[in-house]
Amino acid sequence: MSSSWRRTLGNARSFVNNSLGGLRGGTNLASWVVAGTLAYFLWIKPSQDLKREQQEKSALSVTSDSYRYVETRKPVPDPQVTGLIYGNKNKDESISADD
Description:
Layout (H helix, E strand, L loop, with lengths): L1 H18 L5 H40 L14 H4 L10 H6 L1
Keywords: Membrane, Transmembrane, Transmembrane helix
């Protein structure tokens, strides 16, 4: 009876050791700590900092000028200036007023 749970525990421990790369003891733990630390400082922390910075920047821009006008589409050009309607194309208004 006692050998059954020992065998189960041994199998579980051997499965965990094999799945973690086959290293044993302190070497295994140290390598995982180093890998985790490097991953955190090279990938996770910079992306979190960038996301936080973007949120702060967007919050600052919203609060700094809440009544700011934002152009959402291009203005429609005057059809007479662009030549779509014929007539007084590109004439100076000051010259036409003197005539």
